[in-house]
Write a structure and sequence with these properties.
The protein has 289 residues and is mainly α. It has 7 helices and 7 strands. It has helices at 25-32, 37-56, 117-133, 143-152, 164-173, 185-208, 252-288; strands at residues 3-9, 12-17, 23-24, 59-60, 69-71, 77-79, 86-87. The strands form 3 sheets. The chain has a 3-stranded antiparallel beta sheet. 23% of the residues are buried.
């Protein structure tokens, strides 16, 4: 969020900031439950780019969460509320040994220290998980129980499979040890771009080669259903050339009944032949006797 002015009045210092329209990411998640993969990764990418800008001037946010991410009416993503931010490698402005932040999004090391930019990267990982899964990875009745889970509990698996590039981003962001995460926001930005490109590419391929809706279902009989002979998935659909009438095909129900009649007739003939053969064998044996 942009700071327009800094001034002092009556011994009080104040900031003038831009007015940001839209809704918070937390409101969006409460309404929709979870987001599509590509949208979740796009939002996370914009948050990481904001974090990259803050880190370039040595600022650590320390309270990244959906409530502090604004989705504007112009399609931008704004990171707000640097109220407990601090300058890296400088003494904090908050009271010593007093925890500040939101437990559901705090990195494990925040229980004992202020943390650094890698703690913000952990918070982004929690938000990515929540946007995709529709729930936070760790919850509990008290702040201490939630912080303890961040410290020792494994990350619950997502409720459905995601591309490996996306899973890698989540796993690395939510590593318990800071040195196992992305070390800079720039690394995270590159990883999120790679993951989003993989998702978009998979979506493009899926749109170009849609799966038939009848796969795994029984085709209705006798009501004009599509031809029962379905081409393999991914094979091109033949398109008649200009001026050529499409070839008429019998409905699948009629074709199935014809096949049943043919097979039934063949079985009947075989049964009659077997009975005649059996009678001839018995008559021959009786004559010999």
């Amino acid at each position: 969020v942009k700071v327009i002015d800094l001034d002092e009045h009556g011994g009080l210092h104040y900031l003038v900031m831009e007015y940001v329209t839209g809704e918070n990411l937390s409101d969006r998640l409460e309404r929709d439950g979870r987001l599509a993969l590509d949208e979740a990764l796009t939002i996370a990418l914009d948050v990481a780019r904001a974090l990259e800008g803050a880190h370039a001037v040595g600022v650590v946010h320390r309270d990244l969460k959906p409530q502090n991410v604004r989705l504007t009416e112009d399609g931008e993503v704004k990171v707000l509320d640097f109220g407990i931010a601090r300058i890296a490698d400088q003494p904090g402005i908050t009271t010593t040994n007093v925890f500040t932040g939101t437990p559901e999004y705090c990195a494990p090391e925040r229980m004992e220290s202020h943390g650094d930019v890698r703690s913000d990267i952990y918070s982004i990982g929690v938000m990515v998980y929540e946007m995709i899964a529709g729930r936070r990875p760790f919850t509990g009745p008290t702040a201490f129980s939630v912080l303890r889970q961040h410290e020792i509990a494994p990350v619950p698996p997502l409720p459905f499979d995601v591309p490996p590039e996306v899973q890698e981003v989540i796993d690395r962001c939510l590593a318990k040890r800071p040195d196992e995460r992305y070390q800079t926001p720039t690394e995270l930005v590159l990883a999120l771009r790679t993951a989003r490109d993989a998702v978009l590419h998979a979506g493009t391929v899926s749109a170009a080669q849609p799966l038939p809706e009848t796969i795994g279902q029984e085709l209705p009989i006798g009501n004009g259903a599509a031809d029962a002979s379905v081409a393999p998935v991914g094979s091109p659909t033949p398109v008649p050339s200009a001026g050529t009438a499409p070839v008429a095909r019998p409905p699948s129900g009629r074709l199935s009944r014809q096949r049943l009649l043919i097979v039934g007739g063949m079985l009947l003939v075989l049964a009659v032949v077997a009975v005649i053969a059996l009678l001839l064998i018995r008559a021959s044996m009786a004559g010999d006797a």
